TrEMBL record:
Domain UDP-N-acetylglucosamine 2-epimerase: 6-351
Top-level taxonomic group: Bacteria
GO molecular function: UDP-N-acetylglucosamine 2-epimerase activity
Record protein name field: UDP-N-acetylglucosamine 2-epimerase (non-hydrolyzing)
Keywords for this protein: Isomerase
Pfam families: Epimerase_2
EC number per UniProt: 5.1.3.14
Protein family according to the UniProt entry: Belongs to the UDP-N-acetylglucosamine 2-epimerase family.
InterPro entries: UDP_GlcNAc_Epimerase_2_dom, WecB-like
Class in the EC hierarchy, top level: isomerase
Length: 359
């Protein structure tokens, strides 16, 4: 959303305000700082181990007062978080137009990912403009009965954000880490991120078992780096199972800039994240998706992503296959299916065009 905020601020015909709920507080604050964004409203609603029902109700109640005071013409929400869903629903209650950035992603399984798949479907039912990142996403919306004229294929703003920082110098924490780990042509880096709610419990333990097997098998040839989410459903099993292996480096959650530079230096990525699937594809990095389904089939079609789920044997076999393969599908220099880095400008233009059309 950061490049959209910047594009809105740069247009003199638009008066834009930024509101954050505080969901994912630490990650939010570092991104705001990185992109020099200063929220006009910070609700700071997130509490430790907060349940979805409590967070949803808090967002609805607090934003209702904000909407009544500001009386905006449009609310823009991005993606499929509980914040995005509740913000869109609250705007609908006040008959405020809703624009959905990254619209139309679907797995067609309401439990995978949970609760994101249902969140984004709810947003689609109330949105007035749907900013689909790809033709796949557009077709999903059309099949659900969304009018074609309300869908704009823009590319994904993740690419816009990535392009603005990918060429910045690597932060010291990354260069020091790579040096400490001895990353080189003979000792390569595998980057891991796993934190999805549907993987809590046994699936995450299976992922950890696969990482242990791989670390034992590769020895000094590989180093596994895992920035660990602070949610205790993630941090407890990961530290318990992986915290004492010499080839596995567990880190605190990373800010966006160092994460991008670790991606740039990785030989392979293991992730259950949605955004990292897009960033890895944009950087041409082979990626194994630790989920049963993905709402980003474009990455699968590009050959960069492979779905592997959470079964340890399947993960181990897939890692060995990628690392031992000369498959040219894993390459840089192809046409990025997620866009050209101009999505934010297309979104702003579409809002202005809609306003002129409807009066």
């Amino acid at each position: 959303m950061a490049p959209v905020v910047k594009a809105l601020q740069a247009n003199p015909s638009i008066d834009s305000r930024v509101c954050v709920t505080g969901q994912h507080r630490e990650m939010l604050d570092q991104v705001l700082s990185l992109f020099d964004i200063h929220p006009d409203v910070d609700l700071n609603l997130m509490q430790p181990n907060q349940q979805l029902a409590g967070l949803t109700s808090e967002i609805l109640v607090h934003l209702d007062a904000i909407y009544s005071k500001m009386k905006p013409e449009w609310i823009l929400v991005q993606g499929d978080t509980t914040t995005a869903m509740a913000s869109a629903l609250g705007a609908f209650y006040q008959r405020i137009k809703v624009g959905h950035v990254e619209a139309g992603l679907r797995t067609f399984d309401k439990w995978q990912p949970f609760p994101e798949e249902v969140n984004r479907r709810i947003i689609s039912t109330v949105a007035d403009l749907h900013f689909a990142p790809t033709e796949h996403s557009r077709n999903n919306l059309l099949h659900e009965g969304i009018p074609d004229e309300s869908i704009k294929v823009t590319g994904n703003t993740v690419v816009d954000a990535l392009n603005t920082i990918v060429n910045r110098p690597a932060p010291v924490e990354v260069t020091d880490l790579l040096e400490t780990l001895g990353i080189s042509e003979t000792r390569q880096l595998i980057l891991i991120t796993a934190h999805r709610r549907e993987n809590f419990g046994e699936p995450l333990e299976h992922i950890c078992q696969a990482i242990l097997q791989l670390a034992d098998a590769f020895g000094d040839q590989m180093r596994f780096v895992y920035p660990v989410h602070r949610n205790p459903n993630v941090s407890e099993p990961v530290h318990r199972l992986l915290g004492h292996h010499k080839s596995i480096q567990l880190l605190d959650p990373l800010e966006y800039l160092p994460l991008v530079h670790l991606l740039k230096n990785a030989r392979l990525v293991l992730t259950d994240s949605g955004g990292i699937q897009e960033e890895a594809v944009s950087l041409g990095k082979p990626t194994l998706v630790l989920r049963e389904k993905t709402e980003r089939p474009e990455g699968l079609e590009s050959g960069i992503l492979k779905l592997v789920g959470t079964d340890p044997k399947t993960i181990v076999n897939a890692v060995n296959s990628v690392l031992n393969s000369s498959d040219q599908n894993f390459r840089q220099g192809y046409c990025n299916p997620f866009g050209d880095g101009q999505a934010s400008h297309r979104i702003v233009d579409a809002i202005l065009d809609h306003r002129e059309f409807t009066g």
